[in-house]
Amino acid sequence: MITDRFRKELAQFRPYVQGKPIEVVRRELGLDRIEKLASNENQFGPSPKAVAAMKAELDGVNFYPEGHPYELVTKLSKRLGVDEDMLIIGNGGEGILWNIAMTMLNEGDEVIMAYPSFDIYDITAIYFGATCHKVPLIDNHFDIDGMLAKVNEKTKIFWLCTPNNPTGNVCSVAELDRIVAQLPEDVLLVIDEAYYEFATARDDYKRDNLEYLKTHDNILVLRTFSKIYGLAGTRIGYAVANAAVASKANMIRQTFGINRLAQVAALAALDDEDYLQYVIESNSDALKTMEDYFDSRGLKYITSYANFIWVDLGVDSKKLFTELEKLGVIIRAGYLWGYDTCARISTGTKEQMRFLLECLDQVL
Ligand SMILES: Cc1ncc(COP(=O)(O)O)c(C=O)c1O
Hints:
alpha/beta, Aspartate Aminotransferase, domain 1, Aspartate Aminotransferase, domain 2, 2 domains, binds pyridoxal-5'-phosphate
């Protein structure tokens, strides 16, 4: 039977659970107003400069895009102070994460990640027949010793998400120094900085993890245009790594993986300083609004360095999700990660935050 011929790894495979799309909730519940605060999208709209660039590009979509977008590569290399051959541009950060797994993993290999963290690290391991060690956070901090203790000769990738999704905490400089110093040089440390720009907007987070690449060949830093740049729907991200790693990853990427609209949008968004400032300010306002609310109710949350907040709402998150959904608010429930009373809630506009808190008031 044809079904007997699927790759055996697919028997274990469980796809990434996407935050419920607005269209689905609208169909199911027939609501007029739905606010999706579940997928850490940028709720402040895309960069106007990026939108204008995409409009101007529309008439050219009969042509394939550049496989390795020259202008974007040169611009990023100048801006980041890295060589052009150290850059990987991908179909979203997720495209690059898959690309890295494809570059590195064989059956029987091992990877290490914190838990809870971004599920794709585990999902890609399963797909390639590798084992993923998930090391639980301790008191909302990375268990660095626990993670390093899992390293052995089979380890290929050490995934580190900072700021961490879904908890929003960051790995300290001292902790990261320790990981870099102790990790064998043949284990790739992937520093997933999908939310990096939100973190750097805070006064207590001033650092540049690209510095590690100057002294170490086994480090890759991943960033995306989906979050701060508001381009999640276009699918574009980038990574910086040692040229040998980048060239292998670039060799196996899809030929035309990054579409034309995404390429011009990313280029334009990089120059949209006003927009970035607006997003950063709106995001910190939204975090503050949520924090004040949680404080007033005595609810525990983790200080967020990103565009979402991880909070213990003290109630069954599955029920809470359903009740909030009925009112038109979609959040990410903690039970999905095994944290039954927690939730991850993305930031939004003042109006969205007002609506969220009103609905939370009703439900709690
Ligand atoms: C930690 C982390 N890494 C990578 C990604 C991938 O983002 P994208 O594929 O939209 O660039 C996400 C998306 O939510 C994320 O949270």
